[in-house]
Amino acid sequence: MLVVMNAHATAADVATVADRIRQLGMDPHVIPGATRTAIGITGNRGSEGRDTLMMMPGVEEVIRVTAPYKLVSRETKAEASRFPVANTHIGGGFTLIAGPCAVENESMVIESARFLTERGVKLMRGGAYKPRTSPYSFQGLGQEGLQYLARAKQETGIGIVTEVLDIESVDRVEEVADVLQVGTRNMQNYALLRRLSQARTPVLLKRGMAAMLEEWLMAAEYIVSGGNRQVILCERGVRTFADHTRNTLDLSIVPVVKHLSHLPIVVDPSHGTGKAEYVPSMSLAALAAGADGLLIEVHPNPSQALSDGAQSLDFDSFIRLYEALRPIATAMNVELL
Amino acid sequence: MLVVMNAHATAADVATVADRIRQLGMDPHVIPGATRTAIGITGNRGSEGRDTLMMMPGVEEVIRVTAPYKLVSRETKAEASRFPVANTHIGGGFTLIAGPCAVENESMVIESARFLTERGVKLMRGGAYKPRTSPYSFQGLGQEGLQYLARAKQETGIGIVTEVLDIESVDRVEEVADVLQVGTRNMQNYALLRRLSQARTPVLLKRGMAAMLEEWLMAAEYIVSGGNRQVILCERGVRTFADHTRNTLDLSIVPVVKHLSHLPIVVDPSHGTGKAEYVPSMSLAALAAGADGLLIEVHPNPSQALSDGAQSLDFDSFIRLYEALRPIATAMNVELL
Amino acid sequence: MLVVMNAHATAADVATVADRIRQLGMDPHVIPGATRTAIGITGNRGSEGRDTLMMMPGVEEVIRVTAPYKLVSRETKAEASRFPVANTHIGGGFTLIAGPCAVENESMVIESARFLTERGVKLMRGGAYKPRTSPYSFQGLGQEGLQYLARAKQETGIGIVTEVLDIESVDRVEEVADVLQVGTRNMQNYALLRRLSQARTPVLLKRGMAAMLEEWLMAAEYIVSGGNRQVILCERGVRTFADHTRNTLDLSIVPVVKHLSHLPIVVDPSHGTGKAEYVPSMSLAALAAGADGLLIEVHPNPSQALSDGAQSLDFDSFIRLYEALRPIATAMNVELL
Amino acid sequence: MLVVMNAHATAADVATVADRIRQLGMDPHVIPGATRTAIGITGNRGSEGRDTLMMMPGVEEVIRVTAPYKLVSRETKAEASRFPVANTHIGGGFTLIAGPCAVENESMVIESARFLTERGVKLMRGGAYKPRTSPYSFQGLGQEGLQYLARAKQETGIGIVTEVLDIESVDRVEEVADVLQVGTRNMQNYALLRRLSQARTPVLLKRGMAAMLEEWLMAAEYIVSGGNRQVILCERGVRTFADHTRNTLDLSIVPVVKHLSHLPIVVDPSHGTGKAEYVPSMSLAALAAGADGLLIEVHPNPSQALSDGAQSLDFDSFIRLYEALRPIATAMNVELL
User: Which domains does chain D have, with CATH numbers?
Assistant: First the structure.
């Protein structure tokens, strides 16, 4: 940390702050300046003591210097993480996770699983439990939906990515899921994150609607620090003033995450744009930006979908997208998984 | 809802859309225009069918017209809600809720409760369970903290407002709390909201960091529709590009909430600004804007606080604030509670 | 400035950075830490050299510590600025500036001026030149509008606040105006700001739609550093994700501006909210927050207004607002001007 | 437009609104509903009359349905625009515009022009006039800088893209420039846009920091409606809460612009990210997203740059980027220009 004294701070103010820093078990380094004095601090853990120092006479600002995340950081682990999921893996390739927003009935799930498997897709998304803005909206089939997903898996061998909404249902969902999805509204549901840190199944952690990069990595740190190292980050757009897309897809976070963390990151262009017609270009852009994969909504009949139909690709569009991804992946020397 | 056809839509496209609307059990009203045709829809419930229509040939846009919240709306209940809390009430006056961010030990809680009671404050805030961005930060005293709050209540009669983080601890917290606080990160934790809709205790629902007004009211609707009508909204600042305050306190939402909903709304200027020196002016502004009260951080010794010290008022500053509020309340003919 | 080295930086990296800092004519102060080394810099002017240092091997971050504005800062001038405008003054009271969005014809301007003068308002706003999003919208009456304003001034003695859109028209506008208004879209039109720094008339500088506090103060610094010290800041709402108001009125910037700068600041609740019904509560809140005044839209017949009618008060509403402001001003011991 | 009446509106309210619509020369279409009545409007031009209607008794909302831009719209001109610039063209390929942020001296401009020309780049960017946040920062070499650019053009044949800050200097800049750049802070400087609508040189219009898509297209409409059809849009990142990049690069606007407008759009990943290390991945992503080109900062020696050094590529990095773009362009069947 760095304490910046204001222009009117006296020598006595500076000395008092330095003493307080020592009391807190840290080391002050006074840096006199032409108009202001700064005090560098070493030996601190995170931003502990920051609030205390900000209250002292003569102090203008206390600036935090180092990042608070540890286990998810590249400084802790230099090589990119990669882990097996069902009969494929995440990290070090470009992994497609596709499927309907919600599990609506058995046949549409089986139909989707078959279609995707035939196309070489190894992971299917599909929500049995759905978080909905309105208490009056369709909330998912729940336990019944999980059974349909299990049957699709049994029949086709496809891996399952599905959302877990609360601690209560973690065990139930884990019986079926190959990846447990945490939704954007739950990114800082710390009770849930702690429970998932005990799970044996990988977790796909969506970025919160207004999450800073640091908060997102700290949420991942909750899971990793509890023992579950298999965390996949998922950028799905953030909320800004812009209204030409449902959210503002922040692809620039992909290279930044790659720089700061060893965790894999996938992109959800369906929620990111909210319109099926913009999904393909954002999918190609995600691949070009260096993401580790896509989480993408595909539905046998989008116009009949119970939720998010407008942003779901139909099977034909998905095939076209797949064909468009392939040559770019080849050009970039990345394996499509 | 209103369907807007694009400039190239044919008469057949329009007819097909109209048919589909009828199939969905709603009524289409075709409005021919110079360059485009629009189709008004009546008989719809919420935005059901919207996605379906957006996918149809010739459709440019589907616009939702009516608000999806019902029970929390002024259209459902025209008079402002007001309900008793401990030995005071919320709604129809300006209620002060003050106290430390976190319960740190027994003596500071008792000291705070005594100070506030002497000053006429009837409700004390204080977190036993704390949601923290980092898994390595102080997470609150938990059960022990609740006991301290209970003791403070017993000794002084002050009402307790404290946060509930997860379903598991609702029963425990409800034994002590007069108001259950839902934090900003949990505003859309629907499992928790549903559990609280069964509680007998009023709920203070903080606005999410990037919550639209409609989402916030829908979160309240979750609680009210389950049977708990005692919901207090709390504006605590939203996340924007601005960095001169910790969050951007959105006071303009106060009159809008008052216009659209009968629920009371209080303002948290401590999280809203993040700096104790800006809390008093934002408190006065909240009163002038028509809020029903304040949720405000006060600490016996802010520079020693374990969390959020920089935004906590000390006792002297609180007294000065109280003295500044009083004449404005009088001028506005509002009772300070 | 403070240079933070990354965890892998070598002693040689640190030495090279320190040398470079000396070459740039500044002084390095090396602060060794447990995991990272930091280098405090003194003797720098602003953030000069920052980019250079950020590119060097081993450097993680370069943090700017001091504010770049000088003449507008409280550190330069401790007392709040106050200057005469027409037959009143700005600063040290609560000054009302009211009137129509646009000058539409002579009679409405005269009618407005008479109404306001009778009510004791000393400054009238009204745009002759209007910046419009669409090239096809009404762009203001221009020169003709200025003449109407001049006549209103002549007849009633009211001071005139009117917008200047470009360098070309500054002379013309200055003949009539007592305050030159710079619109939100022109806040960083540096050519215009430089021209206004030569003007003899006070300038009201609206905050840009996405302006950080620092950028706003720097824009004011452009005007003041060129010789025109009479700058009035005007908060008019910023652009965020929120859609319940036209913009998000950031009242919290009022106390922050007061803390950092000696310039007066007024609030425009009309553009801030975009709806006449929310203007009164935000006006009272601005007063309570410590602003130096209001810029507010009043129109003899809002439903016939050529622009911004929805956010304009009619005369009766303005009278009610005035009556509501008065007791609060008294309670706060502030003079209504 | 669509008028939505509130739940308490009477039949008389509805009739009065309908009459007013007729008076305004438009046609009302009343759509009765279960809880509310809506009134569709046809025959309107843009949103004229909207404010008037919003003020009427019983009116809840007035929703604008059609887009206000005309000449820049795909509905007006279905084929994508493409126009020649210097010895290349913009539109229908992927055009690279590279070079230093600012013209610093003659040798660096010549050196840059030679380097780029050898690599096949046909357009060089470089600012002679620089808009700077601080009045105390380097403001560009002005006229002298233009001469250096002219010499670089003469020697290498490279086309010149350079910024124009104000009306006064348009003629001077046009003598040298092949494309006139309008900076982000000037996107709504309508006086400047109007002047440029008279220019014979293409205009590159950067998106404002908080510009909605519609406002951006309307700014382009200012230029096109005045007679200059050669407008190139440039996405350069918008301002959001996120702090991991300098701005938030909004690549999703590329396919949306392509859908709504025939104008070409290029991407500036240098300002978009603010860090040279993230520029390559965002450049590849821009190509994959369907942009018509890049505006990118390249400097012979970024660590010595007078402005924006941290976001400038050095020559070697630019070569690597170029080599990375080539196979993706081939895979996408797009010509690198």
Answer: 2-63 (3.30.70.1140), 83-332 (3.20.20.70)
Angle at D215 between CA D211 and CA D218, to 5 degrees: 145
Rounded distance, CA A331 to CA D333, Å?
12
Please, which chains are in contact with B (at least 3 CB pairs closer than 8 A)? A, C, D
- Is the four-CA dihedral D305, D306, D309, D313 of positive or negative sign? negative
Contact A51 B303 (CB under 8 A): yes
Q: Are B18 and B30 in contact (CB under 8 A)?
A: yes
> Coil, helix or strand for C28?
strand
| Residue of B37, B41, B60, B65 best to disrupt the D interface, most CBs of D under 10 A | B65
**Residue the block writes with tokens 């507008």:** C72
The interface predicted TM-score (ipTM) is 0.91
Distance (Å, rounded) from C-alpha B259 to C-alpha A193? 38
Contact flag D46-C137 (C-beta cutoff 8 Å): yes
In terms of C-beta density within 10 A (0-12 exposed, 13-18 middle, 19 or more buried), how is residue B61 classed? Answer: middle
| A42 shares contact with chain C (CB less than 8 Å) | yes
pLDDT, tens digit, for every residue of C46-60? 667 887 888 788 888
- Chain-chain contact of B226 with A135 (C-beta, under 8 angstroms): yes
**Tokens standing for B176?**
């002590």
Which residues, listed in sequence order, are joined to residue A94 by a DSSP beta bridge?
Answer: A336
Single out the residue of C90, C94, C70, C69 nearest to residue C80, CA to CA. C90
Q: Would you say the C-alpha torsion A208, A210, A213, A219 has a positive or negative sign?
A: negative
Q: Give the residue carrying structure tokens 């209620």.
A: B95
Cα(C48)–Cα(D307) distance, rounded to whole angstroms?
10
User: Rounded to a whole number, what is the distance in Å from the CA of B193 to chain A's nearest CA?
Assistant: 10
Per-residue pLDDT of chain D (337 residues; tens, 9 = 90+): 778 888 788 888 899 889 988 888 888 888 776 667 888 787 776 667 787 788 788 888 787 766 788 899 988 888 999 999 999 999 999 999 999 999 999 999 999 999 999 999 999 999 999 998 888 888 899 999 999 999 999 999 999 999 999 999 999 999 999 999 999 999 999 999 999 999 999 999 999 999 999 999 999 999 999 999 999 999 999 999 999 999 999 999 999 999 999 999 999 999 999 999 999 999 999 999 999 999 999 999 998 888 788 899 999 999 999 999 999 999 999 999 9
Say yes or no for a CB contact (<8 Å) between D51 and C305: yes
Q: Residue B101: which of B163, B45, B21 has the closest Cα? A: B163
Which residues lie across from D96 on neighbouring strands? D294
CA distances to B92, D200, D202, D217 from D227, in Å: 60, 9, 11, 15
What tokens does A41 get?
């601090």
Q: At a CB cut-off of 8 Å and minimum separation 6, what does C155 contact?
A: C110, C113, C114
Phi and psi angles of residue B127, each rounded to the nearest 5 degrees, phi first: -95, 125
Which among A31, A35, A241 is the nearest to C239, CB-wise? A241
